[in-house]
Design a protein that fits this description.
heterotrimer; B: alpha/beta; Rossmann fold; 8 helices; 10 strands; globular; C: three-stranded antiparallel sheet; about 65% helix; about 5% strand; elongated
């Protein structure tokens, strides 16, 4: 048994060493797929459960009552202390209420920092921790006189750090700390998202641009100018949090934690959509690349299996050798992908910065690791076991003879290609030998172009709706989509290069023969490049309307936005150019070797 | 039929493979003149470099040293492009393994170098048909290689080598994969070509193939060691060959 | 035993009958076992009668025993040997004869075995060419064609052996 293991590992290692470029390519394709998938998972994971975590960490309230102008409700109306006391009593003694904190004074103000001027809601708090809704400080410390604590999403957008000085309502405050809360949706949403009724200038996507800060009660009292913009917030905890909507229905002026959650979701809905969409695209690209990889490995193994069987290897040993090799590669690639992905993902988790989940910590969940590993193993298994099983059924002799699968005859294509210039002739014949690969190539390009066009449509929409006010939020979205675009492009480039290399490598013999029959190296190179370019054309063409339509569908309510023609033309041409360039190198390298070596008879 | 001016002239041809430590001199200083219409056979044990020599003559490989002149033009310093041009117009190659495209029919295989040379599809197709007739496969033009016997496949390959009216046909072990019946088919074809004035250089390890040549060159370890003109009959008569009369 | 073979063996040096026999055995190996022991003396007798071979003069007065007789080549015999070496006929039991031709030539230093092989090869190739030509001119499946094909195949086989001889003798030459 041990001898078997040693043999298997030695055979596998030798084979990997014998074809280094091939093994590297396999590693690259799987690693690229793993990286992008990891990032996609990480990004989507970030927006799933953090609100729940925040609620737990901050003892978030189930119901919040707003009194007076605190959330901006109604015109300036002073709230008398008697009125306030009555409301507090009625709410805190209502059936189902188990705990409460507040009432806390709130006031509208304006924050100025490094050229940014943004509206804020300032909430006055005690230094001692509250029993319900105690914002969790993630950096620095809690409030003290002369200092302010800023909500994390807002701080992230402003670029503010602990120790900076900000101007609030005309006074200068030091930033004591940064915290998260579950009582108010994080920036770029705000309380106003839920309960605003006075006209606050709307930012992008109908969300007013307001941040949240915490100060001492006295500091907030100091903001009260011309009377009436002091409002009050009261936090309630219920025995049964699920009953919050029913409770809020009975008590006007309250809102529930569920409405906060949906506000968050609605807000990052767009981002989630973008992420989801991007994730799907990336997934499709990864599958296309892996599909070509697996298909190729499967056909190559037949002869090797024949050799092994001929020297007496049992089917088990054969399967063992193949599996060992492929699993080693796949796991190595998956590890690289996971590590790379987890390094990249934190750069992007600023999106959900307002929710618990420190930016520096890897947002890779166990399920992500498992999924990636499963995909890698699946690739390895299919690549190795399918040919092993197939070969176990056929005779050793025919496997050894390695009669290559004769490509299907396509008389029409052959006749048509005869009339075309030589590079096109070669390209068409090359494509007709491997139509599935051409299809995967086309799909790969189509997916990429769809993604890029959708993102361009997004930009067009944003700039056309003249949404310049909440540019912090827009910046964040732009950043996110830019990252997705880059990932798409990188993965598409890996795919294209891989497919081009694979085509050149697999076609090595026919290319050499064509050269022996009189085609120049230049013609062969051009033929190989065209074989990659021809499927890319329809892919790029389809991608444009598809991208526009997809954006239209996903945008839910956004009108049909068509990016300017020059941008579309630019995408189309640069895609084709990129494909040409990427495929030129493997094609050229392959076409340069003297035909004699490849056609060796001795 | 054999004129005086050499159609192929190679002088000082060398081809080395590998690095300093393990240098292999596949061809180590070969001079060869082939006259128009001549059939030359090159024989030798395996590994003697005869296939490499043929690849050099056909422009499939560049020599490490030496010169090759084809129809009066020096071709050794040509660009890759010019070599390709050479391959499609001046030289026709026949391989031991036939190397037909499996997914093309016989006639599509034959016309391929014609198309690569830029001929119109119609002209190429017509010439291909003509050649297949010449090699005796007029009724199999639409057959795939898998439906042809070894000898028939090689005949298709020979027709393919002829489509661009090459100055010289180079054949590398053309009967290596064939049984004796198929070998006779191919030898007949070579004989017919020879009669029509085609210049042929055949590399082979089979005696009977070599016996059809005008000139037989023996090669060993990358150099020519012997040359023999095959003109003139043998000293015994045919009756003697089969043991009738004489000793 | 071909007379020429015995002549050629004598070309190395004058020898007694049993010495010649020993050299024959060595050259033929197991294939020589069938040879009649006395046959060589019969051949020597014949050769003496035709004047190719002569006996050394015995010491004064004494008659020699048959097996002590020492034979040597006469000038006529020498000439015949040279003639035989350059002959390229290939008669029926030819393998052993040719083989011995080479061995004798090498041992006597009379000629380079490699060039003997070479000459024979050329002749065989010419015959092959003629036979093949004749075979191809016949219509397919005719009786003559079949016979000629047989000739071609046997000639091919012989030529292969001749190639092996050449390789072998070149190797020996290089080693010595």
């Amino acid at each position: 048994m041990k001898g078997q293991v040693v043999l298997v590992s030695r055979l596998a290692a030798r084979d990997l060493r014998r074809r280094p470029v091939e093994s590297l390519m396999v590693l690259l394709v799987i690693a690229a797929a793993a990286t992008t998938l990891t990032v996609a998972f990480a990004l989507s994971g970030v927006t799933n459960q953090p609100y729940q975590q925040t609620r737990l960490a901050t003892a978030g309230p189930d119901v919040i009552a707003v009194e007076g102008g605190g959330g901006g409700r109604g015109p300036a109306q002073p709230v008398s202390s008697a009125q306030l006391a009555a409301t507090v009593v009625s709410l805190t003694t209502a059936p189902g209420v188990t705990a409460h904190s507040g009432p806390y004074p709130t006031s509208l103000s304006v924050i100025r920092f490094r050229g940014h001027t943004v509206d804020v809601v300032a909430e006055g708090r005690d230094r001692a921790p509250a029993s319900v809704d105690q914002p969790k400080v993630t950096q620095g410390g809690w409030i003290r006189p002369g200092a302010v604590v800023i909500e994390r999403g807002f701080a992230d957008a402003l670029g503010v750090h602990v120790g900076d000085n900000v101007r609030l309502g005309g006074r200068s405050f030091r930033v004591a700390g940064i915290a998260v809360t579950a009582a108010v949706p994080p920036y770029p949403s705000s309380l106003c998202h839920i309960v605003c009724s006075f006209p606050v200038p709307k930012g992008s996507f109908g969300v007013p641009n307001m941040g949240l800060v915490w100060l001492t009660r006295s500091a907030v009292a100091g903001f009260a100018g011309s009377g009436s913009n002091i409002g009050y917030l009261l936090n309630l905890k219920l025995a049964n949090p699920a009953q919050a909507p029913a409770f809020a229905a009975q008590h006007p002026g309250t809102f529930t934690w569920q409405s906060i959650q949906s506000a968050i979701n609605a807000l990052i809905g767009i981002e989630q959509v973008a992420l989801g969409f991007g994730g799907w695209l990336i997934g499709l690209l990864a599958l296309a690349g892996l599909g070509v990889l697996v298909g190729r490995r499967m056909t190559e193994q037949a002869r090797r299996i024949g050799l092994l069987k001929a020297v007496g290897a049992t089917p088990m040993t054969v399967a063992g050798v193949l599996l060992f090799e492929h699993i080693a590669l796949a796991l190595a690639a998956a590890t690289v992908g996971l590590v790379a992905g987890s390094s990249i993902a934190p750069l992007l988790t600023g999106t959900g910065a307002g929710l618990v989940g420190a930016p520096g910590a890897p947002s890779i969940s166990v399920s992500t690791v498992i999924i990636i590993a499963v995909i890698a193993l699946a690739v390895a298994t299919v690549s190795s076991l399918v040919p092993a099983i197939r070969a176990a059924r056929t005779s050793t002799v025919s496997a050894l003879a390695d009669a290559p699968r004769v490509p299907r005859r396509r008389p029409m294509l052959t006749a048509v290609s005869a009339r075309l210039p030589v590079p096109l002739l070669l390209a068409l014949r090359q494509l007709s030998r491997r139509p599935r690969r051409a299809l995967l190539n086309a799909i790969s390009i189509a997916v990429t172009v769809t993604g890029i066009v959708a993102i361009l449509a997004n930009y067009a929409h944003i700039s056309s709706a003249n949404l310049t006010i909440s540019n912090l939020k827009v910046d964040r979205l732009n950043e996110l989509t830019a990252i997705i675009t880059v990932m798409l492009i990188i993965l598409a480039a890996v795919n294209t290069t891989f497919i081009a290399w694979a085509t050149a490598a697999d076609g090595r013999f026919s290319s050499a023969l064509e050269r022996a029959l009189g085609a120049t190296a230049g013609q062969v190179t051009a033929g190989l490049s065209m074989a990659a370019l021809l499927p890319a054309l329809p892919g790029a063409i389809i991608g444009i309307p598809l991208g526009i339509e997809v954006y239209h569908l996903l945008g839910s309510g956004t009108p049909l936005t068509v990016p300017p023609a020059w941008q579309l033309a630019g995408v189309f041409l640069s895609t084709l150019l990129a494909v040409t360039v990427l495929t030129a190198i493997p094609s050229r390298l392959s076409a340069r070797r003297p035909p004699a070596r490849i056609l060796q008879t001795e | 039929m054999i004129s005086m001016r050499p159609v192929l002239r190679a002088s000082g041809l060398c081809k080395t493979f590998g690095s300093e430590a393990a240098l292999v001199r596949a061809v180590d200083g070969v001079d060869l003149d082939v006259a128009t219409g001549e059939t030359v056979a090159i024989m030798g044990p395996s590994g003697c470099g005869k296939s490499t020599l043929l690849h050099l003559l056909g422009g499939l490989e560049r020599p490490s040293a030496g010169e090759i002149e084809l129809a009066g033009k020096t071709v050794t310093d040509s660009s890759e492009r010019a070599l390709a041009h050479l391959r499609r117009s001046a030289v026709g190659f026949v391989f031991q393994g036939f190397y037909l495209m499996d997914e093309l029919t016989a006639i599509e295989n034959v016309e391929l170098p014609g198309l690569l040379a830029g001929r119109s599809p119609r002209a190429a197709r017509a010439r291909a048909r003509e050649l297949l007739e010449q090699v005796g496969l007029a009724d199999r033009t639409g057959f795939l290689p898998s439906a042809l016997s070894g000898g028939q496949r090689q005949r298709v390959a020979i027709a393919r080598a002829l489509i661009n009216r090459p100055i010289i046909v180079l054949a590398d072990e053309p009967t290596g994969n064939l049984d004796s019946t198929a070998t006779v088919e191919v030898l007949r074809l070579f004989e017919a070509l020879h009669e029509s004035g085609q210049t042929l250089v055949i590399v082979t390890h089979e005696q009977r193939v070599a016996a059809t040549a005008d000139r037989l060159i023996s090669m060993r370890d990358g150099v020519f060691v012997d040359e023999m003109r095959m003109t003139g009959g043998s000293r015994g008569d045919l009756g003697q060959l089969i043991g009738l009369g004489g000793e | 035993m071909q007379q020429e073979v015995v002549l050629a063996l004598l070309a190395k040096e004058p020898s007694q009958g049993y010495q010649l026999r020993a050299r024959l055995d060595e050259a033929l190996g197991p294939l020589g076992e069938g040879l009649n022991a006395g046959h060589i003396y019969v051949t020597l007798g014949r050769l003496e009668k035709t004047g190719m071979v002569a006996l050394e003069e015995p010491p004064q007065g004494r008659t020699q025993r048959a097996d002590r007789k020492i034979y040597h080549l006469t000038p006529a015999g020498q000439e015949r040997v040279f003639q035989w070496l350059s002959e390229v006929s290939w008669s029926r039991p030819h393998l052993a004869e040719f083989h011995l031709k080479l061995v004798a030539a090498a041992q006597a230093g009379l000629a380079d075995p490699v060039s003997i092989v070479d000459a024979q090869r050329r002749e065989m190739l010419r015959r092959l060419r003629d036979a093949q030509r004749a075979a191809m001119e016949e219509p397919d499946h005719s009786d003559a064609a079949l016979l000629l094909e047989g000739v071609v195949l046997r000639l091919q086989a012989d030529l292969r052996w001749l190639e092996a001889c050449e390789r072998n003798w070149i190797g020996r030459r290089e080693r010595s």
